[in-house]
Protein 1
Amino acid sequence: MTAAATGRPHAPGSGRGRLRMAPVLMYHSISPSGVADPHRIRVHPDRLDRHLRLLRRLGLRGVPLAELVRATDRGEAAGLVGLTFDDGYTDFLEHAVPVLDRHGMAGTVYVVAGRLAGQNEWDEGPRLDLMDADAVRAVAAAGHEVGSHTLHHVHLRGATPAVLAEEIQGSRRVLEEVLQAEVPGFAYPWGEFDAAAADAVRAAGYDHACVTGDYLPGDRFTIPRFYVAPGDGAARLLAKLTRHSWRMRGVPDAGGAG
Ligand SMILES: [Zn+2]
């Protein structure tokens, strides 16, 4: 089985084995707010609760992506699902953390490092508050992972080398300064990447990166995820998980390689 067999383009390999990845779910805002949600990025906390309850019924445990990747490297990812929350909205601490705690699960928050205490100015429409540095530290202290989502939530596909370096390296520096800890994970804004962007992520010292959308993964710098829509019920989520495991059949397990 080769990458070519998927018929899909992807970034050059990292030199390590292809990852037979467990599913990774992508959320954004978790909030009971009734404000218009034209970009469909808000999931109600009760719905998140039902999603996590479904995972438990299936014998699955939601973990931060860095933990999932480490487990995958060791061949020990069975029973795990990656949980990710993009953009670093302030509602994560208030509304997602209590639900995750209730189910004994944790996730990764991908923070836009140049907009701490700002808002989602990259979207037209309702403005949502983004975490400040204290909140980012609180997320890590509560047992969740903090990853980078660039400095300014820019389009990386086709970006110049200078923009790639500033947004990808610069955001890692900011977050490592805030956290006083290594930041191994990166998420491409809108999931947009090309080979140059993936190379820049690797060169900046990250361990892995995730994109948007479900397809057969190329390598650890283009890990696919499922978008979870505001209206996805347990049945829809189950269908997505089933489709993922169906697609993963036949991909060799890279875990424990060597
Ligand atoms: Zn984003």
Protein 2
Amino acid sequence: MHEYVIARGVVESVRNFSLNFGCGVKRFKVLVGELSMLDIGVLREALEGLIAASEVRGADFSIEIEPARISCGSCGNIISFGEAVSHLSEEEREMIHFLPDLIASYAACRRCGSLDLRIISGRGVSVRDVVFTEG
Ligand SMILES: [Zn+2]
């Protein structure tokens, strides 16, 4: 269900690109955050259906997973989500996957020990690398 709403947003955004630049869209890339909890298969299907029914029909797309990264607010150290949760139990890991803001309650910076951890990528969905058709 989330997938359909997000697919609508993606197609709307690609359509806006097309209208703003006054040309058709050949292809684009959808970057999906590792923590977004979306079903890629469902998202792909929703996108295919919506694109076919929109002004940008015929546009090709690919979906890529953006890895989640965490930054330490104290020393600037950047670690992957996997590293940050590697010492936690499976249950804790699953909980943080659903509620990423809990990361600071369970993990500390490996370099300085600070609990000031922030998720800097891997949460949302974005449209990248839009290629327009010639003419
Ligand atoms: Zn640190």
Protein 3
Amino acid sequence: MAKHLFLAVTCRTLGCTTGCMVKYVGPYSGESKFQHLAPEWFMSFCGECKQTHRYKREEIYPVLRDEAPPVGFESAF
Ligand SMILES: [Zn+2]
């Protein structure tokens, strides 16, 4: 089964360490460079604490999941 590559950031809210999925890149095919896919700054909403924060490109990390994004998944950029 192919893995799915997402980009995530860790929520900035104090006490909330939720990893927020900010973008679905697609089926994973071994790419190791992904930061160029993000703008320098972007806003992301945390579904856990309901706060929106500003993040920078360097804060992004890759996440591999078995499932494709759910219906209604919204990219932050
Ligand atoms: Zn949060």
Protein 4
Amino acid sequence: MKEAIGLSEATILDERKRQVHRTGQGELDLACNTDSLAGAVSQRACVFCGSRVVLYPIADALHLVHGPIGCAVYTWDIRGALSSGPELHRLSFSTDLKEKDVIFGGEKKLEAALNELIDRHQPKAAFVYSTCIVGLIGDDLEAVCRRVGEAKGIPVLPVQSEGFKGNKREGYKAACNAMWKLVGTAPIDDIPPLSVNILGDFNLAGEIWMVREYFQRMGVNVVANVTGDGRVHDIRRSHGAKLNLVQCSGATMDLAKMMKDEYGIPFIRVSYLGIEDMADSLYQVADFFQDQDPTIVERTAELVRSELSQLMPKLAELRKDLEGKRVAIYVGGAFKAFSLLKAFRHLGMQVVLVGSQTGTKEDYEELERITDPGTIIVDDANPLELSAFIKEKGVDLFVGGVKERPIAYKLGLGFCDHNHERKIALAGFEGMYNFAKEVHLSATSPVWRFVPRREQTPLEVTHG
Ligand code: SF4
């Protein structure tokens, strides 16, 4: 039988069909949290990269990549995370393994590199990342780190992040396991009762400073940033905080769970992106502490009122040009997509495609609940699928990270970087205005008039 099918359907490999869903079209039974399909390519990074993005912003630690130089280059200054003090994290050190090391082992080279770098930079701790080849040749990272740590008197922590051993989430877990060795190793006597740790914010463009300022106005003390503008000593005493605030569904949740099990510190999931989620996160913290401080809720309400009274008129101006435009979202952790969806509704824009690299079943159920009928929900997509979906849905603006940017530009549509490369703070109330300006600038740029959009062409295929 011969029939015409859409480009999107023809592009999805049979083995990937269960990783795509359309809101309102049948029951959601999305396959997710699995290894990427061989041969299908993927927007995902490797396990090593997952661990790097989480640990890298710890600014006074040494970060040594044990592997060929390419792994270190690939993740050099990967998040552009800002520091208010030391900037050791921005240097990318590597043992630069060569063929001879692969044959005879790289442990001696690793030990020499650690000794030299610790003497030269005097870090507060060192993280040593295992890459694919180290997993293959079987260097004993644990033993080398223990030896050097004892000799130098600082924590030297192996990060078991061999690139091939799973998907990016495994990297998050390896990072949390490494940080877990620091937690509980410094005194906590001077920590005040209203205290939190901020988990899962990486201080891109100084965002964690904005969020910390809100907490300061509420009278809440921040013990540790995990990990944006992070410090080793703060993480060591983070078990003294009364509450963990976890942003980003994947990256630091494992650490929050370990702290809950071991120290009984509860955690709540928060998001600092968009108006509702930012306000809701502050109110959740205020509610948590209101028994100790009965005026905290009122202080928080005043903060939110004052921020919104400045923000809303400015958003209304930008909304006039954005109303009705169509948006595609593809992000690392799906939790961010929830906030982005709400933020776009404030701008009068319609999200028609939303996907993530590492979403869980619960994440996708939530996405199905909050998206409009017909919205495409996709797990672990690849460039071909994303391009086909974007054409099918007539998208005006794509929101993603470094790997999604060329897809948008090749298709001739606006792009907003919501990941590693951006230099503009998008969190908090002030960030919402920056976000709206970014979106407005890109989606309404006259340059798109000169780029002919590639229209969808239905494919003629033969079945049976
Ligand atoms: S760890 Fe492996 S997959 Fe990751 S960058 Fe290095 S070689 Fe590539």
